[in-house]
Design goal:
about 190 residues, alpha+beta, globular
């Protein structure tokens, strides 16, 4: 049985900040909607305080998490220890997606690495944190970050990234609205 917390304790924070990968899950309200689970990494997550985390969201082929947050705000972030003691930490909460035109995006953006492919900051207000054993999680060694995303973004260039987001990030696979700026430009 795991431990449950109402905030991110100092020990949980140390564990979270030591991880190289995390997973984000969200779902639409519709019973026939698709649940989304995405791996994240590249030094993109920050613990802002005992009840808030945020991560830099990169341009991708889908916009599921952003669309789900716009619809209902539900999100869970999971961290697994692939090295060291077997631990899993889950942060359940309510999230929102801050886009480049939002004042809060501008305030948080300096906390993250420079990246041409950054499209939003996902902020999660943690309502429940839990820690459990990760006995079933295998051991893996960290080799480093991939360079493919930065190379892809550089090849596309600023205009190509905008075009790509208009094509791929306007709506989720279930038809929910995605990036606000894309919808605003289409009007």
């Amino acid at each position: 049985m795991g431990d449950v917390f109402t905030e991110i304790t100092p020990a949980l924070r140390r564990f979270i900040e030591a991880q190289h990968v995390f997973f984000v899950a969200s779902a639409p309200l519709a019973a026939d909607g698709r649940v989304n689970l995405s791996p994240k990494g590249t030094d993109s997550l920050r613990v802002l305080d005992e009840r808030t985390v945020a991560y830099l969201d990169y341009v991708g082929s889908g916009v599921e998490t952003i669309a789900h947050l716009r619809e209902n705000g539900r999100i869970v972030v999971m961290f697994c220890a692939f090295a060291g003691p077997p631990t899993i930490v889950r942060l359940h909460g309510r999230g929102d997606a801050l886009e480049p035109g939002d004042p809060e995006f501008a305030a948080l953006r300096p906390r993250f690495p420079d990246a041409a492919s950054a499209r939003a900051i996902v902020r999660v207000r943690v309502e429940r944190a839990s820690e459990s054993c990760g006995y079933g999680v295998p051991l893996y060694g960290y080799e480093g970050e991939r360079s493919a995303m930065a190379a892809w973004a550089e090849k596309k260039g600023p205009d190509g990234l905008v075009k790509y987001q208009r094509e791929k990030n306007a709506a989720s696979i279930d038809g929910l609205p995605g990036l606000r700026w894309v919808a605003a430009e289409d009007e």
